[in-house]
Amino acid sequence: MDTKIGLLDTCKPNSNDICCPANCAVSTIQNSVTPIPVISPSEATLGRHLARRLVQIGVNDVFSVPGDFNLTLLDHFLAEPGLNLVGCCNELNAGYAADGYARSRGVGACVVTFTVGGLSVLNAIAGAYSENLPVICIVGGPNSNDYGTNRILHHTIGLPDFSQELRCFQTVTCFQAVVNNLDDAHDLIDTAISTALTESKPVYIYAISNKLGLEAAVEAAAAFLNKAVKPVMVGGPKLRAAKACNAFVELADACGYAVAVMPSAKGLVPESHPHFNRDLLGSN
After folding, report:
1. Close Cβ partners of 184 (under 8 Å, ≥ 6 residues apart)
2. Which residues pair with 108 in a beta bridge?
3. What is the three-class DSSP state of 25?
4. What span, in angstroms and rounded, lies between the C-alpha atoms of 111 and 275?
5. What digits encode the pLDDT tens for the residues 58-95?
6. How far apart are the C-alpha atoms of 179 and 145, rounded to whole Å?
7. What is the pLDDT of residues 169-189, one digit of tens each?
8. What is the C-alpha to C-alpha distance for residues 178 and 15, in angstroms, rounded to an integer?
9. What's the distance, CA 223 to chain centroid?
């Protein structure tokens, strides 16, 4: 994977001073950047490319709110030298923190999750647009396998149409990069960042998860569970809505964990199951 700056070389900082142009517009940063180690081919991922670009334009702090659609992306950000993730209480805080960072440093960035995070940060991005601030808003999207399935995903507005967030951002950002194909992903990301710096306006980068990201998440969850001393599976009332009762039992059979249910899920999991434990959550 090519990790050279390319057209973004013109935006590389040259000094530690914050530049305030005569017309009071927000300028690109004027500070030197510590040489960045080369990424090995095994580490060359889309997430690392995006993280590297942020460091190269002088963004050393990214304001974020974790969500299940952006966790793998945030892992790549954490692995990037020179990039610090700042956790925020909510997405609006993250957006306004990036706004303030852009005022001070010339450009800011925030990372949120799909729909529930994107719609929450929208007001801060709109403010940055009106104030001519280059804020890079990065949204982690659903797995690519979910597109075209007519599924209604959690943390959305309850529609199988995944474009509602994009339509909202189209009115308050100067460029929208929907990254759903590795063939043009690098070009889209570089164009978005260059446009933000050139026009001094916010941009929207939407990165869709893929099968490899899902597999990485499953492997990480399995590794975590394998370290547990006494893991317990607790069934809740959503098992019924998701039609996942049988799958829950099959998972219990496969892993051998103790099983319990919340009072509101009584009857969804057979209490005759050999791993069922009535004492874990008290009497039902």
Report:
1. none
2. 135
3. coil
4. 41
5. 999 999 999 888 888 898 899 999 999 999 999 999 99
6. 14
7. 999 999 999 988 778 888 999
8. 33
9. 22
